[in-house]
Amino acid sequence: MADVYVSWDEYHRLIEKLAVKIDRSGWQFHQIVCLAKGGLRVGDILCRLFRQPLAILYAASYGGQNQQIRGELTISSNLAMIEAKLDSPLLLVDDLVDSGITLQKTSILLQEKYGITNIKTAVIWYKAASIIKPDYYVEYYPDNPWIHQPFERYELITPKDLLD
């Protein structure tokens, strides 16, 4: 399949569709954990819509040219949050699930390190190659296209480039 290109308007519309799916499910949660960097915007919008506290967990596995080469997964040892502790049930969000390894390993970390017993996952894009199926998603891809998100351009430029 050809690469998929997403505009800012489409990106926000997809996050809103994800919020509607979660809301219609009737599942109630007390906190959102988003995976940075890709899940930051998703988590931010969902925490505003659902009026639930947001925690941020940094996980990275892509690097190289254009940030398109998958490497070893690195997960931060700490969460950034205002609350004193995480609370179950918890919604774990990211922008997409590609291999599924990040969602799987961060779910395990949240259970083992923070004692979270009730976790559901939400992403915009779900690819068939994933080893896990997210609880909530908007678009499913039976193949493995590269999804170009609107903020990716900032990984290819510097502040000096903005002056021109």
UniProtKB/TrEMBL annotation:
Any Pfam family matching the protein: Pribosyltran
Any one GO molecular-function label of the UniProt entry: glycosyltransferase activity
InterPro entries: PRTase-like, PRTase_dom
Keyword Oxidoreductase: no
Signal sequence residues: none
Family annotation (CDD domains): PRTases_typeI
Keyword set, alphabetical order: Glycosyltransferase, Transferase
UniProt domain Phosphoribosyltransferase: residue ranges: 7-154
The keyword Transferase appears for this protein: yes
Gene3D superfamilies attached to this UniProt entry: 3.40.50.2020
Family annotation (PANTHER family): HYPOXANTHINE PHOSPHORIBOSYLTRANSFERASE, HYPOXANTHINE-GUANINE PHOSPHORIBOSYLTRANSFERASE
Protein name from the UniProt record: Phosphoribosyltransferase
Organism the protein comes from: Microcystis wesenbergii Mw_QC_S_20081001_S30D
